[in-house]
Amino acid sequence: MIGKWGREVAGASARRNVRYALGYMLGADKEASRVGYWAVIDEGIVRPDRGAGVVWEPVAGNGERPAAIFAANLSSIATADLEMQLVADANPLLKSAPTMHLMLSHNPTETASISNAEVIAADVDVLNRLGLGDHQYVISVHRDVPHHVHSHIVIGKCHPDSLRIWDSWRDRYRLTWALRETELALRLDHSGSV
What we know:
The protein is of the alpha+beta class. The chain is 36% helix and 18% strand.
């Protein structure tokens, strides 16, 4: 696995990051991306679980972007951005963006054999090892690039219960460690990281 923290954009909202992860602003045809995003949201709303707490593969994603979604510690995929923003707004000490963006990818050999559920299980394991497992997050698996499965993870910086801000000190090194530990635990290929 290879992991990379997305650069923090000043003034970026949870809405922007969640929409980006779900494919709203990706691709050459922006209008088609927007229509696809809203189709995914509409599909999540009508599900009994509201698209949260379970791995699901949206038909609107055409098996590519997004190929699968998992939202944790949220009530609905449709309100994920609002919920993360509200938790962040409740902590006056948070002066930066309310969310973090993490990208994880698998090598081409693994891409051919790994399922969407296994990708999400690996992503959740990495988040748990980083101490972010109890935070609000949305995982969006993309298979739009041939021989390259990757996921975008949007994570709320504040813990939803304690409102404590995640300490990002040495986050690149901690991510490298978490990726390697996950590779060993799940018997994934070691790709190097960061």
